[in-house]
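ok trying this again, last paste got cut off
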Amino acid sequence: MNNYKKSDKSFGSNKPNSSGRNSSSRSRNDERGGAPKSQGRSGSSSKSGSFSNSFSNVQTKYRTRKNKTTELSPNSIVVKGSVSRTRLSEKPQRDLLSNEPMRLNKVIAEAGLVSRRKADELISAGVVKVNGEVIDILGYKVETDDFITVKGDPLPISEKKIYFLLNKPKDVIVTSHDENNRKTVMDLVKTNLRIFPVGRLDRNTTGALLLTNDGELSHRLLHPSYQIPRTYIVLLDKELSQTDAERISQGVVLEDGKTGPADIIIDPKKPNRIIFTLKEGKNHEVKRIFEHLNYYVRQLDRKIFAGISVQRLQRGDYRLLSKKEIGLLKKLVKLDY
């Protein structure tokens, strides 16, 4: 059976793959969810008459087991229009979500190496370097992207894990540091912890991007064996034909191999605008798939990554993931710790 329905030009299934029972929690400031339910390679789409309803159907794939919604508590913290659902006192929150320089001895202590007093002794002894330069000044402050070594060894990464969701805007580079001094996602997310983006989005691609300091989770989310779903809104230069939609849904052969099955929903009022869900993360894969069939991708916006949605999160804003979302991500990649 093919992954499309001819009557309403919808391609794909309303039952995407997943490794378990998962969820979506919806609040006043954000809507996001867990892993989708499992299915085979094919399915049928709903008879929804509107593209917006079709996207809502994509969102409802990610629901809690009891379809419950979650409201924000009065203690929720808003950052640049984004929401943290983690209860924190005022001072720790200011430290966590600031981008101000931090005292070197504090950074060393928070890495779990030694106490602040011992860190001062190491600094005074001249065995601490910042970006290759010996620093022996007490009270010296470092930036979040500074490279620190102690006795020649890189500073251990803090055990404290943190997880952000960013709605990436255009013209922002997904990297920890850009040699050409272009604006990066690290300029948008304010934290004193050393984080990195989970995967990449092209400079002009917008939407859902996770950032964390959890290397193992990041590695698994990007590994093809876990089949992590990614949902995009794609705007093409022309109408997507039924034949090509069917080909894409079954996989097309590119220079690095055949792509996996994909789900497609076409906007009936604007047939060059589609919802596209795939479970691979090859380099420039979405654009290459359409270019292979002589389409040009004019706009690409990732709405959902691994069940986490940027719906109701303004472009350029970010928020901390909730404990529930973090747990769902770990379940998705069979990571229990």
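PB: full thing came through this time. The longest strand covers residues 297-305.
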